[in-house]
Specification:
Blueprint: H1 14-30, H2 39-43, E1 47-51, H3 57-73, E2 81-85, H4 93-109, E3 116-121, E4 146-151, H5 152-160, H6 168-177, H7 181-187
Parallel strand pairs: 1-2
Antiparallel strand pairs: 2-4, 3-4
């Protein structure tokens, strides 16, 4: 399975990036049912896609902080969750992985542990203990680096009504492993550039 080649994203406009992320959300995350909880907030227009124009760590961290504050100050019925998309930096997965520590530190610093959590997606996502070409990495591969800001209370509510949530990762791996080469190219075109 190929990994993504570096894209020139600084020249890609925000509308195009938003459309690419929205298509990934609809076709991959929801379409393959990788996150069984995403369809309802997407249908209800409660998912915000925020494109950060940051090119420096501090500016990106500030963008993420502001998105967390907006989530904190907005009723979940209006805004359930936010995808912070990072087209202009963190293209290297290892740099992205290191930045996750900054985001988790921000959550701790703001006393948001137990209130918010972050899920992570990247074009070159690679789970610990796997090889970059392993199928299971597809479950977290997105067109751009993405930080998914999640309300823990909302996650707890949906997990109460979902039978066997522990099986989700294995189900997702089986699902993406079963994709044909043609399906992979259609769903993950950014991996075949």
């Amino acid at each position: 399975m190929p990994t993504r080649s570096t894209q020139d994203t600084q020249n890609t406009d925000i509308n195009t990036i938003t459309l690419q992320v929205d298509q990934w959300l609809n076709d991959v995350v929801i379409g393959l049912n990788l996150c069984p909880f995403a369809a309802k907030p997407q249908r209800n227009k409660q998912i915000k896609i925020f494109i950060s124009e940051a090119t420096q760590d501090n500016a990106l961290l500030e963008d993420i902080l502001l998105q967390f504050i907006e989530l904190s100050n907005t009723d979940p019925e209006k805004l359930e969750t936010t995808l912070v998309v990072v087209p202009n930096m963190l293209q290297d997965f290892w740099d992205y992985n290191l930045f996750i520590d900054w985001v988790e530190g921000l959550i701790k610093q703001q006393n948001w542990e137990g209130i918010f959590q972050v899920a992570t997606f990247h074009p070159d996502y690679c789970f610990g203990g796997t090889e970059p070409e392993d199928d299971e990495n597809l479950t977290n591969r997105s067109p751009y680096p993405v930080f998914h800001l999640i309300r823990e209370e909302s996650m707890e509510k949906v997990l109460k009504h979902y039978p066997d949530p522990e099986s989700i990762p294995d189900t997702n791996i089986a699902r993406v492993s079963a994709l044909s080469e043609e399906e992979r190219k259609k769903l993950f075109p950014y991996l075949f550039c």
